[in-house]
Amino acid sequence: MGAATVAPNARASAPPWLFALAAAPYGSFNGLIAVALPYVLRRYGISVEHIAKVGAIVQAPTIWYFLWAPVVDVRFRRRTWVILLSLGGALSCAFAMGGNASPSVRRLTLLLVLASIFSQPISSAIGGLIATVVPNSMRGRTGGWSQAGIVAAGVIAGGVTVWLTGHASPTATSIVAALFIAVPAFSVLAIDEPPPPRVKLKPHLSNMLRDVVASLRRRDVQLGLVFFLSPISAGALTNLFSAVAADFRASTTTVLWVVAIAGVLTPAGALLGGVVSDRFDRWRVYPVAGIASAIAAVGTLAGPLAPRTYVLGAAVYALATGFGYAAFMALALDLTGRNTAATGTRFTLFMAASNTPIVYMLRLDGWGHAHFGVRGMLAVDAIANAAFGLAFLANRSPKWTFRRRVTDVQ
Prior knowledge:
The chain is mostly helical. The chain has a single domain (about 20-400), classed as MFS general substrate transporter like domains (Growth Hormone, Chain: A, Up-down Bundle). It is about 70% helix and about 0% strand. The protein contains 14 helices and no strands. Helix 7 (about 140-165) packs antiparallel against helix 11, helix 10 packs antiparallel against helix 13 and helix 12 (about 280-300) packs across helix 14. The longest helix has about 50 residues, at about 345-395. The chain starts with 17 loop residues before the first helix and ends in a 16-residue tail after the last helix.
């Protein structure tokens, strides 16, 4: 498949690091779900298996949001959609976390599902924005920065919220959590995005549909969806580490240390993965990331159930997960190609596919804990990552690789 010569709009000059701030609202919401929610629910005596179920329900819109994410390709600039969606997610989280000290799990879940409905398309808007203003030769690094911003914001928002649950009122906690989502969104205004063409809605929607259908017919896109639907680099354990702290006899202080360490190592892994993805075959970097996650889980599984194992295992898993996030972003942006009528929607297909394993791996990891304890949870995650990572690396058929120059592609 030949490379196109069309470059993104020349007026764009946003540095890669700016996308870390622009993507932070999406990360802040994810951090609240992955770090704060399990910790708070466990404090109320809810089992790890039930916490995993709640997490899976809240994460479910990550699979289906491709149904409403095309809105980011309609009417407004994608940076405008980032702000609007972030405000909607922030308000939903504020209502979910505010109120009584003993929240209704059902009410909390429903409101967080609503927040998830707002928050998921933010990633589509960011992906479309990168495809619009960043050349493909820099998308690995830019994707790495955006993933670093997502993870760092999530860790900070989650860690601060965990601390506030024991030191502040629910109302104050909910306000701070909402600000973590809303405030960074306005940094997107510093990105010089060209205005969308003025076209009537019906013809524009028809063009979007043709664009998406043409993309789905491509062989490399079909293979990419297979990759993204696999368990590779789902990072599901990051949603459960705070819930299994008691299994390792880890204190609240230790949990906060783990959150802080992950806040450094996951973005570091993302930045490393972005650089590697710009220099090596992105079709190979992605499964390698899955194998790295499996190694981290096996190492934790083999150690004693002690706080030091908890800290070291979570740290290595965080580094591998960040690397995997950036590897996904680089490959997904490569497949998205240049700016078209449905760029954000095309990127959404890849994001929705990659979010699917987060949901089912949460359930599988929770099942492993329910039947075999924390070692069973770690084993399930390791086996899933290793099996698919090795399978993708072992198959060297031309059907499974699409080596190309790192240029702008259709």
